[in-house]
Amino acid sequence: MASVRIREAKEGDCGDILRLIRELAEYEKLSDQVKISEEALRADGFGENPLYHCLVAEILPAPGELEEPCVVGYGLYYFIYSTWKGRSIYLEDIYVMPEYRGQGIGSKIIKTVAKVALDQGCSQFRLAVLDWNKTAMDLYKALGAQDLTEAEGWHSFCFKGEAMRELAGR
C-alpha cells in the first residue's frame, strides 16, 4: 500500500477539494446540487475567521519517484455548540475516491477529526449519513459512533431557499 498522509488543507488545495466535492455529488447522483466555487471555498475556509476546516488525504510518492503527492480524499468539518454538552465538532463531509477505498483512509480522516475535537475541548463529534449508505454506517458504528436516529429518534431538518426567505421576512 502507498503511503498516505492526512493533513490540514491549505488554500492551494481548494481546486482538489472542489474536484472531490464534485465527485462526491456525482457519486450520490446530486451533481446538479453543487453550487460552491473554488473562490468561495478559499474565502470561507482560509480567511481570518474560517467557517470550516478541512483535512485532505494524499498519497505520497515512493522515495525516488518524481510524482507530486495526490489528494484522494477529504474531510470537511466545523465547530458547533450544544446547549447541553458545550463545544462539539461536526464532520460535514468525508469522501475518499473509490479506487482508494478499503485502505483505511476514511478511518484515518475520522480519527484525525476526533483528535482535533479532543485538542479543542469538544465533548462530542457528530456527523450525518444518508440512509442508503450502509457501508458508511457500518464503518461509523465499527469505530464506535452511536446512531442517534436509532438511539434517540433524532431527525434532521433544513430550511432553505424560499422557506428561509419567508421565515426571515424577505
UniProtKB/TrEMBL annotation:
The keyword Methyltransferase does not apply. It comes from the Eukaryota. One of its GO terms (biological process) is putrescine acetylation. This is Spermidine/spermine N1-acetyltransferase family member 2. It comes from Ictidomys tridecemlineatus. One of its GO terms (molecular function) is diamine N-acetyltransferase activity. Residues 4-169 form the N-acetyltransferase domain. The keyword Transferase applies. The lineage of its organism: Eukaryota, Metazoa, Chordata, Craniata, Vertebrata. Pfam families: Acetyltransf_1. Gene3D superfamilies: 3.40.630.30. Belongs to the acetyltransferase family. Keywords: Acyltransferase, Transferase.
